[in-house]
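From the shared-data thread, chain only:
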Amino acid sequence: MAQKNNRIVVPEAKEAMEQFKMQAANEVGVQLNQGYNGQLTSREAGSIGGQMVKKMIESYENNLSAK
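Structure, as tokens:
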């Protein structure tokens, strides 16, 4: 059985990460509920995760170019 390894490393960031996830879901057109979202298809969940990674990379690149 796969180990669940998606814990927030910095507990103080939990709320911000939830908002980030909701924003990413909205950007890709996926409706999320607060709490458990077990009804999502693999494609929808992957779209949200992919959008989050895309935004994180974009932010990192912007930070690099600002230095």
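Residues 40-67 form one domain.
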